[in-house]
Amino acid sequence: MSPLSESKLFEQLNDQAIELPSWAFGNSGTRFRVFSSAGVPRNPQEKLEDAAQVHKYSGISPTVALHIPWDKVDDYSALKNYAEDLGVGLGTINSNTFQDEDYKFGSLTHSDPRIRQKAIDHHFDCIDIMHKTGSQDLKIWLADGTNYPGQDDIRGRQDRLAESLAAIYERLDANQRLVLEYKFFEPAFYHTDVPDWGTAFAQVSALGDRAMVCLDTGHHAPGTNIEFIVAQLLRLGKLGSFDFNSRFYADDDLIVGAADPFQLFRIMYEVIRSGGYGAKSGVAFMLDQCHNIEDKIPGQIRSVLNVQAMTARALMVDRNELTKAQVAGDVLAANDIFMDAFYTDVRPLLAKWREAKGLDADPIKAFNHSGYLKQIAAKRVGGQQAGWGA
Q: Which residue intervals of 223-295 are DSSP H helices?
């Protein structure tokens, strides 16, 4: 049985916020085809309108991450005001150094000083945007790497990366953070310059206290114990944020919890156990997904609800009894306590939590009945739909 009372569980659930990625509302696809959908946003303002719908029905997605230059506008202060009028705020600023011809052989790690400086300057521009949006985090994911042995100097690329990151970090204000994301492979196939949490940790540790690691749940080799990495980074004080998604094979970017809800539960347990949960923890939760065949808004609502559900289950683990069983070496009892929480059906409790906050008990059903998708399909005709590269 869970040691948490209903009121205590609700209180802890109130401390959860999950940031939405602006790009999840645009068109996306595979290496073979980007698929279009009716009503897809044509500009950052329309992306914010759709994101506001997710928060309206879920109640726990109050901010939206921007991707530069995909979300470039002339007036970021006006964009911030527009978001606030919709009931959401602007969050993480994500840089983009993987869609420019100059970055074919790397960006922050490139051997050409001119190209490295171009990539650094792009991050300076992102920091300037952060000043206008009030964003705390600058998130960096690099496509940098090589495809063939001997193609470039692996050690030299690490040195150049360290120099580039140091220049970017130095430009940040005292209340801003640099968050470095890692990825096992793709688009580089022989070696990736930031392939794992150890490399990311080594690079950010050399920068300072305001440099952190971002963990994307889809960016690991098959069989990787992701919750172990979560525990380690929290133990070391270097877990800055999550990018939540789900994978069957590689970086599938599917709805979080779709492939392995038990993994999501295990991750959330380690987050809670190690003090990484809640606004005061400094660990930011964000989705990073591509809705290729499903409708974007309900896909994001489902994702938010999946994280919330596994958080609720993880909160219900009887940690006192679990510790007793662990200390006693009672393997089966410890596992039973853990699994009891995972198998708990929290849907009635979450429905009650929503109703107590004035939300509909079934967010997806309520959104589908709102008619919003039909409205935007009729309204957003003409122009260029947002998507990869737009």
A: 226-235, 261-273
CA-based nearest residue to 345, from 297, 310, 382 = 310
Per-residue pLDDT tens over the stretch 168-178: 999 999 999 99
The 10s digit of each residue's pLDDT in 79-97 is: 999 999 999 999 999 999 9
The alpha carbons of the chain give a radius of gyration, in whole angstroms, of 21
Task: Find how far residue 263's CA is from the centre of its chain.
Answer: 16
- Distance, CA of 255 to CA of 248 (rounded, Å): 11
User: From CA 135, how far away is CA 64, in angstroms rounded?
Assistant: 10
Q: Which amino acid is at 51?
A: A
The per-residue pLDDT for range 196-239, each reduced to its tens digit, is: 999 999 999 999 999 999 999 999 999 999 999 999 999 999 99
Rounded to whole angstroms, what are the CA distances from 193 to 7, 156, 215, 222, 287? 47, 10, 16, 19, 23
- The Cα 119–Cα 356 span in angstroms is 48
Nearest to 273 by CA among 236, 308, 242, 318: 318
pLDDT at site 29: 85
Beta-bridged to residue 145, according to DSSP, are: 192
CB 279 within 8 A of CB 322: no
d(CA 297, CA 370): 12
- Residue 279: CB atoms within 10 Å: 11
The encoded tokens of residue 367 equal 């959104």
> Over the stretch 14-33, which tens digit does the pLDDT of each residue have?
999 999 999 999 998 887 88
pLDDT attached to residue 33:
84
DSSP secondary structure letter of residue 246 = B
Q: Which residues are bridge partners to 243 per DSSP?
A: 216, 286
Rounded to whole angstroms, the Cα distance separating 179 from 125 reads 16
3-state helix vs strand vs coil in the chain, percent to 5: 45, 15, 40
239: β partners: 213
How many CB atoms neighbour CB 380 within 10 A? 17
- Rounded to whole angstroms, the maximal C-alpha distance in the chain is 67
CA dist list (Å): 19 to 22, 93, 119, 183, 381: 10, 12, 26, 20, 28
Q: Where are the beta strands (DSSP E) in 74-156?
A: 89-94, 137-140, 145-146
**CA 46 distance to own-chain centroid:** 20
